[in-house]
Amino acid sequence: MLPVIVRSADSLRNDIQAGPHRMIADEPVSAGGTEMGPTPYDFLAAALGTCTSMTMRVVAKKESIPLEGVEITIENDRMYAKDCADCLSTSGFIHRFNVAIKLLGNLTPAQRERMLDVAGRCPVNKTLRSEIRIDERLVD
Predict the structure, then answer these.
(1) What's the N-to-C CA distance of the chain in angstroms?
(2) For the CA atoms of the chain, what is the radius of gyration?
(3) How far is Cα 132 from Cα 98, in angstroms, rounded to an integer?
(4) 94 near 82, Cβ under 8 Å?
(5) 65: left (phi > 0), else alpha (psi -120 to 50), else beta?
(6) DSSP code of residue 2
(7) How far apart are CA 125 and CA 130, in angstroms?
(8) 128 touches 118 (CB < 8 A)
(9) Which segments of 11-107 does DSSP mark as H helices, in order?
(10) Centroid of chain to Cα 42
């Protein structure tokens, strides 16, 4: 995998290079940004949504499920762990992604259930549910 390179200057705007692709991330004006691009959490939600869609597409094709399209709406927020009745963590924040999946096509109830099961198996979903380690270092 090629590295993703993020560059910024004297604002919250960041220029992103992912292989041959160029993107911009920013924050809303209300948070001190210029709203020139999606926020980092928008990109995180987009990664989850696109991975989910792609994974369902691959499985649908492999299993001849007549999936014509997918529309995924993702909302994310965070709450204090102490306010979460069904969470294992008791301190800090719990980040929550609410994922609404609309399947397009003439699918049977069993095929629809299969697609929902597949949605939870995309690699980004698995990454977000697993322990994550981030190693940071300064370079010249």
Answers:
(1) 22
(2) 18
(3) 20
(4) no
(5) beta
(6) P
(7) 9
(8) no
(9) 40-62
(10) 8
Q: Which two tokens stand for residue 73?
A: 């709406």
Token digits of residue 101: 């999946």
Q: CB 83: neighbour CB atoms within 10 A?
A: 9
* Angle at the Cα of 105 from the Cα atoms of 44 and 120, rounded to 5 degrees: 35
Place of tokens 């099961």: 117
Is 110 buried (19+), middle (13-18) or exposed (0-12) by CB count in 10 A?
A: exposed
CA quadruple 54, 52, 62, 18: dihedral sign: positive
Angle between helices 40-62 and 109-119 (to 10 degrees): 130
Predicted confidence at residue 80, as pLDDT, reads: 64
Residues 6+ apart with CB under 8 A from 34: 11, 12, 13, 26
Strand partners, 101: 72
User: For residue 119, what are the CA distances in angstroms to 39, 48, 114?
Assistant: 24, 10, 9
- pLDDT tens digits along 77-134: 876 666 666 666 666 677 889 999 999 999 999 999 999 999 999 999 999 989 889 9
